[in-house]
Amino acid sequence: MRVTGVDARAENLNRARFVAEASDADIRFRQGRVETLTHDEGRTYDLTLFLGVLYHVEDPMLLPAARSRP
Fold first, then answer.
1. Other CB atoms within 10 A of residue 52 CB
2. Counting Cβ atoms within 10 Å, is residue 22 exposed (0-12), middle (13-18) or buried (19+)?
3. Contact criterion met (CB below 8 Å) for 7 and 31
4. Largest Cα–Cα separation, the chain
5. Nearest-angstrom CA–CA distance, 67 and 48
6. Against a cut of 0.85, is the pTM above it?
7. Which residues on adjacent β-strands are paired with residue 6?
8. Residue-wise pLDDT tens digits, 39-53
9. Are 34 and 50 in contact (CB under 8 A)?
10. How far apart are CA 24 and CA 36, in angstroms?
């Protein structure tokens, strides 16, 4: 299983990397916007979790395009 963590802020990604390394988790991190993730990477995801994200995104109506495939 491949896990990708996404955040717009480098500071948050640095914290997440620290925790992942400390727990020996195999997680790939990417700086960017979740609204355009599938377009930016040219792929879809089997599962997408938006934990505490909705009220932070600029345009939440774009999130369905970044959700998991049916």
1. 6
2. exposed
3. yes
4. 35
5. 6
6. no
7. 30
8. 777 777 777 777 777
9. yes
10. 28
